[in-house]
Structure formats: C-alpha cells, structure tokens
C-alpha cells in the first residue's frame, strides 16, 4: 500500500492506494501517513483536506488479516498508534477540516479513519462497518470510543457486536454521513463542500473545529466558557473586520487567514 499526496488551491488530497489491503502494523505505511499529516499541519496555506481511497472499490478496508506480523490482540493493542488508525482517527493537532470522500468499503481501520474526519461524503455504494468481533478482534484504534459518540449508542453497539455493514443511506440517517450521492457525482459533491469551506473565513473554520472537538463532552455552561487559542485568533483577526466590510459593501470577502 502507498499513500498519494497532492496540494493545490489550498486543498490537500490524501489518497490511499490499494485501499482494500491496508496493513495496520506496517511501520513504513504508518510513517508515510504521519509525514503527510505533519506536512499538512505545518503548512498555513492548507485550508481543507480530502481523504479517500483510489478507485471505486474501497475507501479503506482496514488491516490485512493475512499480514499481521504475528502480533496477538494484546500485543497489537499495546503497540497501537495513540493517534488512532492511520494517524487520523484520534488526531487532535490537525486544525483544518478533513472531508472523508467515501468511495466504497470503509471497514475496520477504514471506518476508524472516517470517524476521525469532520465531514463525510459517500457514494451510494459505500458500506461502513467495524467487523472485528467476527474474527475475534476489537476495534481498538478508535472505533469503540468514537462511534458511540457520533451515532446513537444502540446503533453503535449493534454494529460493533454483530460486525454488520451499514449502507451509506443508513449512516446518513444516523447522522454520521453528511451527504450520499451516486458514484459518478461523488467528486462534484465533494467539490461543492470544498468551495463552501473555502468561502468561509479560515480562522473561523479552525475555531469551530477546535471548539466542537474540545467541548463535545462538557456541560453547555462549561463549554461556553472555553477560550481556545483558535477562538481568540478568529475573534481578533483582520478577517473578522473584512467579513463585516465585505457584507456592507455587497462583495465577496478576501480572506487573509490572519
């Protein structure tokens, strides 16, 4: 497996090649992904990330059980990436929005990567699942802790205990997927979401992501009192003044990201 990375017009695209066979314990693959995430985090010109798989078969089918390096379940748990599957499922240091472009199967670790994204756009042929229990494993790289926070509790438990796959339409109904479109419209739909993100003030988008992630489990009054660096940066930015000026002048704002 390899990972393809491109950056154009403020949009970073991360494409998992051969997504039907992603080895979770492959150090080279993990290092490659980590290098990409750090590169994105260090580049202030990046305003949006799209994560997807190559072709139409899979977003990512997770770890390859035929190539597990002989690790026991306990050993895998002990050696697991603390940032979750693919270095993205539990990652908190990535400030810009990540769109999961789900073009097929998102299973196991692939599903865990989806759970680490902010917006999920899926083809109507996409399927989601955490089938680990069917093979005597557990969704240890973010699945058990994240899914229950993003869909109703009984839906999450039911999917994990049975290993069932859910359709894109089902996951849209449960609130995990933002939009479902035919496969041949997937890129156009993703592009529409990208355009809307780029039309918004970049520091405001970052502040929204930071606030949502940091306060999701707090009582509302405590969450309201949080003053994150991203929130302060957005409120004191030149862009906050530009937005008001542009509205009054009936023109599109020119965002500086500062």
TrEMBL record:
Any one Gene Ontology molecular-function term assigned to this protein's record: lyase activity
Enzyme class: lyase
GO BP of this protein: fatty acid beta-oxidation
PROSITE patterns membership: ENOYL_COA_HYDRATASE
Source taxon at top rank: Bacteria
One Pfam family cited in the UniProt record for this chain: ECH_1
InterPro entries: ClpP/crotonase-like_dom_sf, Enoyl-CoA_hyd/isom_CS, Enoyl-CoA_hydra/iso, Enoyl-CoA_hydra_C
SUPFAM superfamilies in the cross-refs: ClpP/crotonase (SSF52096)
Documented EC number(s): 4.2.1.-
Keyword annotations from UniProtKB, A to Z: Lyase
Xref: Gene3D superfamilies: 2-enoyl-CoA Hydratase, Chain A, domain 1, Lyase 2-enoyl-coa Hydratase, Chain A, domain 2
Protein family (similarity comment): Belongs to the enoyl-CoA hydratase/isomerase family.
Name recorded for this polypeptide: Carnitinyl-CoA dehydratase
Organism: Roseibium aggregatum
């Amino acid at each position: 497996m390899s990972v393809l990375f491109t950056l154009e017009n403020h949009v970073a695209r991360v494409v998992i090649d051969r997504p039907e066979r992603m080895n979770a314990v492959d150090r080279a693959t993990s290092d490659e992904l980590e290098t990409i995430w750090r590169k994105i985090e260090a580049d202030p010109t990046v305003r949006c990330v799209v994560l997807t798989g190559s072709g139409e078969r899979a977003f990512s089918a997770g770890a390859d059980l035929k190539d597990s390096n002989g690790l026991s379940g306990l050993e895998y748990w002990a050696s697991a990436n603390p940032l979750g599957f693919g270095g993205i499922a539990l990652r908190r240091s990535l400030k810009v929005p990540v769109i999961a472009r789900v073009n097929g199967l998102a299973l196991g670790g692939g599903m865990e990567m989806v759970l680490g994204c902010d917006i999920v756009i899926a083809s109507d042929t996409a399927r989601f699942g955490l089938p680990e229990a069917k093979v005597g494993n557990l969704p240890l790289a973010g699945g058990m802790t994240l899914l229950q926070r993003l869909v109703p509790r009984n839906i999450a438990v039911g999917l994990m205990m049975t290993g069932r796959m859910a359709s894109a339409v089902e996951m849209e109904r449960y609130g995990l997927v933002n939009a479902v479109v035919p496969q041949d419209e997937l890129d156009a739909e993703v592009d529409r979401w990208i355009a809307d993100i780029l039309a918004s003030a970049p520091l405001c988008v970052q502040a929204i992501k930071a606030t949502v992630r940091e306060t999701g489990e707090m009582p509302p009054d405590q969450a309201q009192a949080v003053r994150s660096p991203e929130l302060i940066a957005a409120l004191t930015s030149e862009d906050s003044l530009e937005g008001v000026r542009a509205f009054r002048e009936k023109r599109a704002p020119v965002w500086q990201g500062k």
